[in-house]
Amino acid sequence: MKMEGAPKQMDGALLKALRCGDVKRARKLTENGSHVFDGSYISRALAGVLEQVESELYSRQIDPDRLSLVVPFKTVAAECGPFSHGAPLSIGARPPGWARAAREERILSWSDHGFGLVGDQIMDIESRFVASKSLARFKDALIAGPFTAEVHEAPIEQGKAGRDIVFSASGKFNVEHWRRFFLSYQVAYRDLDWTLNYGLCQELMEQMQDIVAAIGTASEPADFLLALASVRPDMRVKQELFAKAKAVEPRLASEADLCWLAIRSRFEKPDYSGAKSMLAELSRITCDSETAQVLRKALRLHLGSIGGEPFPIEALKALAPALRDPTEPYLSLELEYTLAELGTELLEGNLQDKPALLLELLRCGYRPAAPLIAIEAAKAPSPDLLKYVLSKGFHAGGRLIPKAGMYMVPLGTAVANVRVANARLLLTHESDPLEDTHYGSSSLDFARQQGDSRMIRLLETAVEERRRRFEASEAKN
Asked: Which residues of 362-381 are buried (b: 16+ CB within 10 A; e: fewer)?
């Protein structure tokens, strides 16, 4: 993918060394600060790309100027080859099985400028190949060319087809299997902020597309209609789908009504009187399942807070067990959305003990807005919230906040607030001191500008230790 306004390369010597496979010279140049591109161009561009095409990405996108490690392609080929042909396009259709290969970290992208990067990169890439074995060991390195391996025409191994997951051999729709798959599909995308597992998301998307094609439009099961209503953005379409689902299967009427009220409570943005009206409507919906009862309780908390009642953080503890219930994924999904509304109120509020309250909300099962919570965690006086966020798989590198269109880096926030303990914790979870931050420079540069000796020493030590570890690993090979 060619970006408009892309700057010229900063260091022709570095590109030449990478193209020719002069690893020793390339390492020396990168250690001395040579860059492939001008400043933070890639970081800025990636923020825009991620915001626009996040659902079409198959791998974590890498800024080559944030990689100080260089490995020869022959080492990669010896460990992970042979290679097969890949996808010619930057964004869009991929061959069957591609998402699985990306999830297993077997995609190698070869830059127009003559070096390689692990993953399905979309910027300035000439070719993509599929390795036989995982490339995970090299995911944080520039791979110096030239690309000399023989490329085979072997097909990419595919995962299970979506229709085989939810349809029996006789073609019967299996509701239980569908509900479990739908929940896993939603969980993957809602956890994207935490794990950046684009490959898994794309694999599930391919399976979902296969299921939708198999279902067709002639005899849509009620569960399928409820699922569509849960995810379609248009309120009129949602209402029509709920009505259709109730007509197909009347026993789901209460479940559909409760989901619809939960959706309205978010999209209609009720005021004080509107919240009271919805609470009265909620009391008239009878739904006996445990998840339904928990959702009713969560809606009462949410609508009550709109109606002026205090924010009852302690009451949230009872909501966690029903989250992501595979037997009732639509109600469970609405419960998670309701928790998101409560989380937004917490994030936007100026509460004295916000980190502790957010920690409690996370323990209750709150998932969205992970980057915003990571900002709060990185600048908090205590590392407790940050420890919990990281324990749930949050990627400690650069983050995107879609609503703000902003490339956010937790380490930069810890440095800005002089939270040495938080910075140390982030460094143990692969934060990069040399990555450009949302403050306009790398965390290490920012620390030097601030002049805090403890922080500078911590980050400089991390950079040096990372370099030594990799060189020791290279020496063994």
From this structure: bebbbbbbbbbbbbbbbbbe
CB atoms within 10 A of CB 289: 16
Of the candidates 109, 107, 111, the residue with the CA atom closest to the CA atom of residue 15: 111
| 240, 202: one domain | no
In a domain, residue 6? The reply is: no
Number of domains in the chain: 4
Does any domain span residue 72? yes
Question: For residue 41, is it within any domain?
Answer: yes
For 432-462, b where at least 16 C-beta lie within 10 A, e where not — what string?
bbbbbbbbeebbbbbbbeeeeeebbebbeeb
What number of H helices and E strands is found in the chain?
22, 9
Burial class (CB in 10 A: 0-12, 13-18, 19+), 218: exposed
- Residue 389 sits in the same domain as residue 293: no
Contact 65, 42 (CB under 8 A): yes
Cis peptide before 7 (omega within 30 of 0): no
| pTM beyond cutoff 0.90 | no
**How many CB atoms sit inside 10 A of residue 241's CB?**
23
- Measured from the Cβ of residue 208, the count of other Cβ atoms closer than 10 Å reads 17
| CB distance 423 to 414 below 8 Å | yes
Within this chain, do residues 57 and 133 fall inside the same structural domain, yes or no? Answer: yes
- The DSSP secondary-structure symbol of 97 reads T
Same domain flag for 47 and 145: yes
Same domain, 417 and 305: no
**Same-domain status, 136 and 46:** yes
Provide the domain limits for residue 310: 220-346
Mean pLDDT by 10 residues, the chain (477 residues): 43 88 90 72 64 72 82 95 87 85 94 93 90 94 93 85 91 93 84 68 88 82 93 92 95 94 87 89 89 88 78 67 85 85 72 76 68 81 88 72 64 92 92 79 90 94 82 63
